[in-house]
Design goal:
With 215 residues, the protein is an all-alpha fold. The chain has helices spanning 7-33, 40-55, 63-75, 80-93, 104-119, 132-147, 152-169, 193-208. It has one domain (7-209): DhaL domain (Serine Threonine Protein Phosphatase 5, Tetratricopeptide repeat, Alpha Horseshoe), CATH 1.25.40.340. The longest helix has 27 residues, at 7-33.
Length: 215
């Protein structure tokens, strides 16, 4: 049974992620008002407009080339730390050799490469109340699922759930990065906007790749 993704699936993944961001952008900005500039939702909207345009570009090219191009487009927008981390992650995913179609193992390698690229750009660690609190567990969950022989859709479901749980845990954390770090205890009690975005993105990725049993 075919268990790979090509450009059609990749476009659908980013389209579903963008749909989630559009639906929740006001809430994302509300969360960002607690310790940031309150523009996270708007920034993510702009980032996904750029991402979709790049991913949907005509022409035959490898998935990794397309991802790297899309990542650079996001890095080109003026969106602060959140767009920089998202762009770096997408661009980093392009460091893996995916070809025109990718299986679960190669997609896991792509996610790992993206996370590795992000780790070179930020000192944030899980527990610091940032995007990393959702991104790292999502990538680790996908990697573990791929190693266990799960299908891409099953691995993506695991990644989406791990990202959701990671984002949820940020509600009990104190921010240690950005403007929010100066607010201390005042940042406890609400989820981090960036981590919430990552959870929405992976939920979109998962919804775009339904389990074969559902087809």
């Amino acid at each position: 049974m075919r268990d790979t993704i090509g450009i059609t699936e990749l476009r659908r993944m980013f389209a579903e992620a963008a749909k989630n961001i559009r639906q929740e952008h006001e809430n994302l900005s509300r969360l960002d008002c607690i310790g940031g500039d309150g523009d996270h939702g708007t920034t993510m909207l702009r980032a996904f407009e750029s991402l979709e345009e790049s991913i949907d570009a005509e022409g035959e090219m490898s998935l990794n080339t397309r991802l790297k191009s899309a990542g650079w487009c996001v890095l080109g927008i003026d969106g602060g730390a959140s767009s920089a981390i998202l762009g770096t992650f997408i661009c980093g995913m392009g460091d893996a050799d995916l070809g025109l179609e990718s299986d679960c193992g190669h997609l896991a390698a792509s996610f790992i490469a993206g996370l590795r690229a992000v780790s070179k750009q930020t000192k944030a660690q899980p527990g610091d109340k940032t995007m990393i609190d959702a991104l790292q567990p999502a990538v680790q969950a996908f990697e573990a699922a791929a190693a266990a022989g799960w299908s891409i859709s099953q691995a993506m479901q695991a990644a989406a759930e791990a990202a959701r749980q990671g984002a949820d845990t940020t509600s009990g954390m104190i921010a240690r990065f950005g403007r929010a770090k100066f607010l201390g205890e005042k940042t406890r009690g609400s989820s981090d906007a960036g981590a919430t975005s990552i959870a929405l993105i992976f939920r979109g990725f998962s919804r775009a790749l339904p389990d074969e049993k559902e087809n």
